[in-house]
Each structure stands twice: as C-alpha cells, then as structure tokens.
Amino acid sequence: MHAWRVTRFGEPAEALTFEEDVPAFEPGPGEVKIRVEAAGLGLPDVFMCRNGYPLTPPLPFVPGQEAAGAVVAVGEGVDPAMIGRRVFGTTAFQAGRGGLAQECLMAAGAVYDLPEGMTAVQAAGFYIPYWTAWIGLVRRAALTPRDVVLVLGASGSSGCAAVQLAKAVGAHVIAVAGGPEKSRFCREIGADDVIDHRSEDIAVRTRALTGGRGADVVYDPVGGRAGRAGFEATAFEGRFVVIGFASGEWVRIDVSETLFPNISLVGALPGAFPRAVYDRAHRELSDYWRRGAFTHVGSQVFDFADGRRAIEHIAAGAVQGKVVVRVR
Ligand SMILES: NC(=O)c1ccc[n+]([C@@H]2O[C@H](COP(=O)([O-])OP(=O)(O)OC[C@H]3O[C@@H](n4cnc5c(N)ncnc54)[C@H](OP(=O)(O)O)[C@@H]3O)[C@@H](O)[C@H]2O)c1
Question: Which residue segment(s) compose the domain that 169 sits in?
Fold first, then answer.
C-alpha cells in the first residue's frame, strides 16, 4: 500500500518519506483495519517526527493519530458485521499504524460511525480536538452558559474546537491568537472577544474584558508564558484546564498559588475513560454538529501527495482549525 512513513528522526522535511510498497497492516485481536478516506494530523505528528513525543513508535512508522474510512477487515474477537461500516477515531499510531496511509488500524471498541451529514474529511478531524474539548470543558470543568472561557491557542486545532464547543454550550468566549489573520479566524469561528497575544497582554486584557473578575474557565493547549498569563487571568473559583504545551513547555503553576483564589487545576485527556463517557461525548457532540454549531471541522485540507507539506504546515505554526489529508 501507499503510505507516508517517518524513516528517520528530524524535521518533517527530512523525516517523512512517501513509499508505494509498504506491507499491508493486519488487524490484531480487538482491532479493525480501515481503508482510509482521510487522516487528521496534529502537533503530536510533528513531535513524533522529531522523536519528541512520549508515544513515538520505533522507526519506521506511519504517523497520523486519527482517521476516517471504511472497516475492511477485523481481528480476532471482533464482530465481522463491522466490515463495511464507515467509522472515525484514533489510530494505532503508537504501534506505527497511523492514518497517513491507504490503510490503518484502530481499536474496534473505540470507533464511532460518522455522524449524519459529516464527510470523511470532517470526521477525520473530529475526534481528538472535539473529544478533548468535551472532556476538558464539559466533563472536567463543568462548563455552564454563565461562564466566561478563555481559550489559549484558539486558532489551532484544540483551541478551535474548544471555542466552538464553549459557544455551543452558551458560554462567553475570549479567544487568544497570534496576529490579525488568526484573530480574524477566531471571530469567524464564534469567539466573542479576541486577544492578540503578539500585541496585547493576555492577563491584563482578560481582566479588562471581565470587569476585573477574570475567566471562569481557562483552556490551555499552549503552556509556557501564555499558559502562565492564562493562570493569572483565572477568576476566583475558576477552573484552569491543562491540555498541552504547543509553546514547547508546560505551564508552570505552584500549587500554593491555587489556594487564595480557590482555583481548580484540571487535567484533561481522553484515553482512559469508560466507553459510556465517550458515548455521551459522541451523543452530545453529534447533536451539536447536527444543529450546525460546529462550522470548522477539518478545515485545512491537503491531498495525499502533499502529506509531508501538511505536517510542515503544522510545524510552521500555520494551522487554522484542523489539518486533514484527503487520502482517497
Ligand atoms: N490533552 C489532550 O488530550 C490533547 C489533545 C490534543 C492536543 N493536545 C496537545 O495540545 C497542544 C496543542 O495541540 P494542537 O493540536 O492544538 O496544536 P496546533 O493546532 O498547532 O495549535 C497550537 C496553537 O498554539 C498557539 N501557540 C503556539 N506557541 C505559542 C506561544 N508561544 N504563545 C501563545 N500561543 C502559542 C498557536 O497559535 P498562535 O500562532 O495564534 O499563537 C497555535 O494555534 C499539543 O501539546 C498537543 O500535544 C493534547
């Protein structure tokens, strides 16, 4: 089969090779094989090219943490009736069987059928950003329509989903982006206010926009200085949701700093919850989707031949929404 593989570690330009005769993947127990229609890519794929991600598989491997397509084979213990279903979900990327190929593997118990009216390109970029946003905002931070949410990295894939989900829930959203183009994008996806972190102080501006109170919920996929500013802008009894470190370093917070302002530090990562939790996420997110709440799902699309360019685009910090590669 045809696949993009990381054959040596380095920047995406030198790490990725397009190969035409990669041996077909065979599904192991509990797995399904997917004929990939589209693959969702993200910053972790860049980190894996550089061998800077905790779940980087041994060389050579196919990157791509999520995908959408049809089930074409099942492994031991999986109901053969699954064959033919069009599904989306996370791939077995940690075993080197990611989505940037004509076929990939997924855990049979973790896939979902495409919501009504959703294309494969959209579905390939739906799972990680939106399930993470749902776990972070709805389940872990108990977001309500009365809350003000500050979303860091709001034009990126995690942030874009968080902005749209928070708006769907009815909260007031302050988005943080770098530069006028990304700020414009944040307004387009529904943010009520936008802070350009290149020219404005995140904490000062958030306080100004909230009458001095700060944000009830802060969603942080960025860390570093931006994350720190987000923490300083968290309201009394606020919730600070730890998602990632797009800036290159995690946010630094001393636990003692949470005491006087009664702030909750909330970690969020879909991965180890019981299936019933994901089912609830799927129901609620599909419902928002049907009602048209999510206008930007899988919004920067590349052809399969441009797989390397897609990952370079992410490495260059040019993401607006979610990068998806159309495989067929
Ligand atoms: N917890 C989970 O389950 C989960 C799920 C998905 C992703 N993640 C993690 O979340 C992080 C972000 O992933 P992503 O896919 O959203 O990445 P992305 O699409 O590349 O977006 C990252 C955003 O961060 C902003 N940014 C980068 N450096 C910054 C800085 N120094 N200061 C302020 N903003 C900065 C960029 O926006 P500007 O250019 O506008 O600044 C960019 O839009 C990664 O660490 C990833 O591993 C975690």
Answer: 128-267
Looking at residue 181, its pLDDT comes to 97
- Between CA 129 and CA 206, with CA 264 as vertex, the angle to 5 degrees is 70
Q: Is 284 inside any structural domain?
A: no
- In ligand 1, the atom with minimum distance to the C-alpha of 132 is 3
Please give the Cα distance from 266 to 129 (Å, whole number).
17
* pLDDT for res 299: 85
Task: Give how many domains the chain has, as a whole number.
Answer: 2
What distance in Å separates the CA atoms of residue 152 and residue 194, rounded to the nearest whole number?
10
Contact 163, 154 (CB under 8 A): yes
Cα 16 to averaged position of ligand 1 atoms, centre (Å): 22
289: in domain = no
CATH number for position 67: 3.90.180.10
CA of 152 to the centre of ligand 1 (A): 8
Whether 324 contacts 125, CB under 8 Å = yes
- Predicted local confidence at residue 298, as pLDDT: 82
Work out which ligand 1 atom sits closest to the CA atom of 160. Answer: 16
Per-run averaged pLDDT (10 residues), the chain, 328 residues: 97 97 96 98 96 94 98 98 97 97 97 94 97 98 98 97 98 98 97 98 98 98 98 98 96 98 97 93 96 92 98 96 97
